[in-house]
User: Fold this.
Amino acid sequence: MTAEDRAARAADTMWADDAASAWFGMERVAVSEGTATLRLTVAPHHCNGHGTCHGGVIFSLADSAFAFACNSRNQATVAQAAQVSFLAPGRAGDVLTATAREVSLNGRSGLYDVTVTRADGTNIAEFRGMSRAIPGQLFEETT
Assistant:
């Protein structure tokens, strides 16, 4: 199985049971080994009392992209820490794209950066996640 095939199958397996990302309205754009891109159109129910996209929604979009990137090798992997910096607001109707990339993978620990942008290219947020591999695979794979 190629790395691209493995990443696609891992993403398909995760997506099938990812009720949270579906509930938010996220869509999967691309996944390959160590990277993932997800998209979300900001709806009125994603907005806070200031009329801007709630920070928790932006964090969730970035966190989901991070999850697909760090699970792309079919090794069950979870977040052990994450932080986000909000740079600009998102508003209802904006299309936000979260692009995750692997910065480092050493043993069971990984480091991933996720950039969230609006369709006009404006950076909305920068997210950094630390992952930890746990026992198991997303799908059965023989070597």
